[in-house]
Amino acid sequence: MIKHIVFFRLLPGLREAGSADLLEEVSYQLGLLPAIIPGILNYEIHLNIAADPKAADLVLVSEFSDMDALKAYQVHPAHLAFVEWNRNKCPKMAVADYEC
Asked: For the segment 58-96, what is each residue's pLDDT rounded down to a tens digit?
């Protein structure tokens, strides 16, 4: 099994005004993907509660049966559309994939 963790952070300037609403929208859009993309075993989206200004704002923790399933997810048109939609909002700041 492969665990895929992505940390997202609001772009500067978006953190101050309406960040809670924007993070909810990003979470909602991310949450649509498991119903569209096959191969996702587990998919959790969480908002950060730490006050650290260097921390991520949102984290995605997902699981796939193997690297092929993860790669299929990454190139799926729905995932690519989310990445493009999210590019100027709350893009990924870090990612980690590991076997478990």
From this structure: 999 999 999 999 999 999 999 999 999 999 999 999 999
What is the pTM (predicted TM-score) of this model? 0.92
In 49-89, at which residue ranges do the beta strands (DSSP E only) sit?
A: 58-64
CB 73 within 8 A of CB 82: no
Could you give the angle at the alpha carbon of 6 between the alpha carbons of 58 and 87, nearest 5°? 75
**Distance of alpha carbon 9 from the chain centroid:** 10
Residues 6/92, Cβ–Cβ less than 8 Å: yes
CB 62 within 8 A of CB 44: yes
Question: Containing H/E element for 42?
Answer: strand 40-47
CA distance linking residue 16 with residue 76, whole number of Å: 32
CA atoms within 13 A on the CB side of 27: 14
